[in-house]
Amino acid sequence: MGNGNGSDILEDNPLIPQLARVQKKITESADTISLRLVRADSRPLGYRPGQFNMLGLPGFKEAPFSFSSLEDYTGTFVHTIRAAGNVVSALCRLRQGDHVTFRGPFGTGWPLDKALGRNLILVAGGIGMAPLRPVVDYVRENRDSFRDVFLLYGAKTTDDLLYRRQLAQWNEEITVLLAADRVRGELPLPVQEGVVTKLLPRVHTALSETISFMCGPQVMIKFAAGALLLDGQSAGDIYVSLERRMECGVAQCGHCQIGAKFVCKDGPVFALADITRFQDTLL
Amino acid sequence: MSTSHSISADNLCRWVDSLAGRFQVLGPVAAKRGQNVFAPIDNSAPLALDYCTTMLGPRFFIYPSVQRLCKIDRETNTYMAADPGPARTQLIFAIHPCDMHAISVLDRTFLGPNKDFYYAKRRQETYTVVLNCSRACDQGFCASMGTGPFLRLTEGFDVVMTALDGEYLLEAGSPRGQELIETAPGLQKTGRMRLYEKSRLEQQAAASFTKSLETEGLPELLMRTFEHPVYKEVADARCLGCSNCVLVCPTCFCYKMVDRVDFEAKIVERSRHWDACQDYWFAEVHDGNFRQPQQARLRQFMTHKLCTWVEQYGCFGCIGCGRCMTWCPTGIDITEMAKEIQRAPTRQLELG
Predict the structure, then answer these.
(1) A137 and A44, same structural domain?
(2) What is the value of pTM for the model shown?
């Protein structure tokens, strides 16, 4: 058993990566790219918004990345990646036709069913827009299933905002509010100077009938969630996608644990109410 | 459990000798400086059956510190799975009940919904023969954790042995364990009386413990006392962050991935290595380090073992072997920390 090519161990083994090819590489900003990947055998992954893959390159290990596309059952998927760290920088150097390894999809994803028929506030900071992109796509495809939908999106500078070509298009169906610490250059939509939480006063909707999804730096989550809680939203209606170190993706390696939760298996999306009792945050 | 048998000490040795022909037998042997270790043996001569405890639990043989996962050819993008081993079917002889419980705790991580191929194969190809403890060890508190001094498991092991008046009582925990017993020379069927003596011995052994921990309500208490000053006090005064506690803990499962590239950068070997939550970098991401202060890492170790493990797996992550405190260079004792929280759950940090 397990000798030779060890095919019995390669099959259905969540620790053995699969191959995908870079179909298209899109430059999103100075340090961020999107990779449209296609699985070697073109079989669909069957992923949901908010789930993630362990992307890797042999010799560089792997890192977790949320999907930034909506499953279209063609075996393709998109990850938006900001160059930071060893494996990520190597991924950013890939060119069209190159191969990359992936394991996944892992995790639970955004609770879109809870937002059906209600208002939805999306709060994104920097690269935190990437995991929320498929939510925007889903809402636009099923616009009648949701009531008021807001996207509050902030970055360091105007140039760091991702998906710039799509933002105005999104604004036709949902309310897109943008913020940047430093405003420079031109965008089809107005950009408010300052942090993303400064956009919250411009959201006029009944918070008791609202679900919020947020992803971004810890400091953004702290202040955005705090502001929504002060305004009366329930901690059970605020969902955050957490960033934790992950080596396995299948609740074995232990790195992503926060209290009793494995972020890879039980998350990465959590209701704020489920994680506030644990202490190991950056703030 | 099926019928039990007894065997003389001499015949037990002959049994081990014969088992060594069929299996790679791993048993407790005397090592340097009065220590005992689990090591491969060819016959019963080196066995130290009266051993107290070992530094490393036998988890090492089922979940090795380095497990090769696969080889990747970077030029052809092909994968070759690594053989998880073992090269020869192994038999761990005279595991103490706490360590057998520890393996059953590890099973919940690696044989759960995401069944691990490597662990599963090594676990399947490892026979386990347990030896019940007739006396407490210095740092052990297995009686408090429900994992000793006699085995409490009803499955997941092959044979359990109990030393009774110079002979050994053998009971099977699995069909393959029953077959194993039947190969022993000079077997004698035992009656009800022997089992009665066994339970009396168990009571005596349980009464010999000096160390204990009240586990009733402990997970709930620890869950609401994350801010208790004991973590900061002990971390500031004594914790070196050396990870000894994690490396000797028989239930710790954390690992990190390691890619080893050959000289021509053609073949990459991916493996997983034991990792430790006491390591400074353990919870670091690009955004920052989630457990930068030592107190947060110490709290992670202790609350994981005695609190959050219960929510994750329905059992404690501590089997009461006492290794973490024995091998802590500064003697940090998680039972003493737990007792301080139980004594004064609402104590606040004194500002000085």
Answers:
(1) no
(2) 0.92
